[in-house]
Design goal:
Blueprint lengths: L1 H14 L3 H6 L13 E4 L3 E5 L4 H22 L7 E6 L2 H4 L15 E3 L4 E5 L4 H20 L1
Parallel strand pairs: 2-3, 3-5
Antiparallel strand pairs: 1-2, 4-5
Helix pairs in contact: 3-5
Length: 146
C-alpha cells in the first residue's frame, strides 16, 4: 500500500510541469525587422514612418491635420504639444510594434494614454484609415483634456 502510494506520487511529480512555464509559452515577442524611422513634422503632429511609406505618411499627415482642425473646433480644445503618430506599412509589421505588442488582426490603430502615441498600420484603404485615425484622435483629446 505504501509502495503504491509512493509510486503514484512519484508518477505525478514526474509528469507534472510548472504552471508558470506553461503560461509563459508564446509571450515573448520576436522583432523581425529593423525600421529606419523618419519623421514628418506638421503643426500638431510628429508622424513617424519609414521610407517605404513616405507617400502614405504624407497622406496620413494631411488627414491628421484635417481631423485635428475639425475635432479641436468641436471639442473646443487645442493640444499643448505635438503628438506622435507611428505608421507601419503593413499589418504584419504593425504586429511587431513595441508600444503595445500585437493587438490582433482586427485592430486598425491604438492610442497610448501615458505617452500620447497613436500607432496604425497602413492598409491602403484611406477611407477606413481616416475613420480609425479620427477615432483614435478622439481618445487623444480625451487623454489631454482629462
Amino acid at each position: 500500500m505504501k509502495a503504491a502510494r509512493t509510486l503514484a506520487t512519484l508518477a505525478v511529480l514526474l509528469c507534472a510541469t510548472r504552471l508558470d512555464a506553461q503560461q509563459y509559452f508564446g509571450m515573448n515577442q520576436v522583432q523581425y525587422k529593423h525600421f529606419n524611422w523618419q519623421v514628418i513634422e506638421t503643426e500638431h503632429w510628429l508622424v513617424h514612418y519609414y521610407p517605404e511609406e513616405k507617400a502614405g505618411a504624407m497622406d496620413a499627415a494631411r488627414m491628421a491635420e484635417r481631423s485635428y482642425a475639425r475635432l479641436s473646433k468641436v471639442l473646443d480644445h487645442q493640444f499643448r504639444e505635438k503628438k506622435p503618430i507611428i505608421l507601419f506599412s503593413s499589418r504584419s509589421e504593425f504586429g511587431q510594434n513595441n508600444v503595445f505588442g500585437d493587438l490582433g488582426e482586427g485592430t486598425g490603430g491604438a492610442t497610448e494614454p501615458l505617452k500620447h502615441r497613436m500607432i496604425f498600420p497602413m492598409t491602403g484603404d484611406l477611407e477606413s484609415f481616416e475613420h480609425v485615425l479620427t477615432h483614435e484622435m478622439v481618445h487623444e483629446f480625451q487623454f489631454e483634456i482629462f
